[in-house]
Here is the input.
Amino acid sequence: MPESDLPGEPATPVLASSVLGNGNEVLWSSPLPLLDSAWGEAFAIRNKGRDSSFYALADKGTLPLRHEIVSSLKKAENPGLVMLEDFGVGKDVRDGTDKTVLVFCRPPEERLWQDLSVPRAPMGEDELVRQVIRPVTQTLRFLWSRGIHHGGIRPSNMFVGASGVVLGECLSAPPSFSQPGIFEPFERALAHPGARGDGTSRDDVFSLAVSIVFLCLGRHPLEGMPEREILQGRAEFGSYAMLMGQHRMPAGLVEPLRGMLNDDPVLRWDVAELEKWMEGHRQAARSTKGQLVSARPMLFGGREWHRARSLALAFSEQPEDALVVLQNGELGRWLRRSLADSSIADRIDSVLAEEGVEKSLLLSRVLLAMDPPAPIYSQGYRVLPGGIGNLMATLYLKEADVAPVAGIIARQLPMAWLSSQQRLEKGQGDYACIFDRLSGMMVRPGKGFGAERCLYELQTGLPCLSPLLQGKMAFSPSDVLTFLEREVKRLEVGAESRQWPLDRHLLAFMAARERILPENLLNNPAMSGSRTDRILAFARILAFVQEHHKMGKLPNLCAWVAGQTADAVDRFHNRITQQVVRKDMSRMIAQGELAGVVNLLSGSDSLVQDEDSFVEARTQYHRIAAELVRGHQQEIARRDAAIALGRRLAVIVSSILAGLLLLAMFIGGGTP
Here is the structure.
């Protein structure tokens, strides 16, 4: 079939071979490693045969993309941000696989700070304000107006421009994935890099403040200190105290840094307050209500702890020892007597009072009671609810174990986290409905549900990860059918499996993307039936997609279904009917209608009529056979009766003849 005749163009623009939109062409043989990201490899772009000021970032296939903001930033010009020129799917000529490609304007050649582990010359206050703070604040205002959190503000992601720094791109990889923890607010720093989720403009302001500290000093403010110690120090003393320490900052920056580094997001400066400061409106940073400090420390893990937040962090690092402390009641006594915080103790008591709670779940809920804003802790992972989908996608793409993260949803820990918050950021309230629905999907048996369904519900821009589509980018159900029509032999992948062709990813993707997919198609008992039954169940779903999206002919798929289920024609008992069905099948294949093929093989009136005729014929056969047997038995009975009658008559006749002979002898008085 000519490629131009193929139905159902994919939802995301397909970039033919290496040629992109607007005459841009990816030069796969010209990598730009200095512009690589955690998400993709960078390559040079040629435009209409000439060198271009753009570069391409091609997906490595190990991290999800921030699809939800790509459209908002396409061609959105701002002098302080690397601009996205185009995006789509292109074929990597090196291995023939399809890859998502982002096309950006090339940033200035020089990074503000190439390697944060290598000291550089400190910057003065005036230079910082002019070259960094002012342009970054203007860029944050630009992003904030579009509801976008950058999530990558750090000196190594800033480029030296003519009128100030230019921020690097923020589209590839999950939000803040590449950020060192020190540049993130405490709760986000605690979370797994792939599970930080979307942040707010206040989070970007915090990152800018840490960048200012780095640039003022020309080095890492906590150089040589392990990450674990930094987090413990921030939990114990606060981010501002840990970062500033004994360092001397320019006098004019002390107050804004105090406001920008506030650990309380409500009291932390936002973009508007930063703009007022730059306009000369000097304002005092609002003080944070300090954490309660215990009169007597609690000893755990060989160290003394004075605050519930820092102790909760220590518990998450030593979960087995923490469970011992929970069970012996030592924690409750310390909270009430030394920390004088009965509210935390009461919350923990209510958790411990529940019977039959699994140990790992028990610890998760206790840590949530001790430090509600902190990420959910479960089985070694720390996640914020908004980042669960990103982390699941990352684990699936890297073929890692997703069960611990799926368990977080199944145990309804996101719901518990949301209910424990004193206040929610914009959009977080929607999580309650989402995770309430997903927790039911997670524990629901059958294909089309479970962890895979939750993945596609949370990651609306993720392509289908079915093995049938390896190397292809299908962003919609119609994309799936289009690619399978082009390469129908892909359907042979995994044919030896007893579940083939109904893999969990494909069904979950279809169910998540086709909201009106009938429930009976997912709960079809045939999915657990014979090979033919499974193929027909699969074909019914494909047929629904074809009809719903009004796709064109799919003759290759129709021919494949018919060929794989040829034995289904043998279900017809009437040979003439079999011939008619085969003829109709050829017509349906030519028309490319999957629904027609499926109906012929499994649900047509002809099959019902054939079965009724067969039952009737079989009944008539048995009736005639019974009548023949009965007639034969009657014939035998008549013959036996005739023989018996003949024998009786012979005896009677013989007796009469003998009597007559004796009578004649008697009358004649003589002997014979």
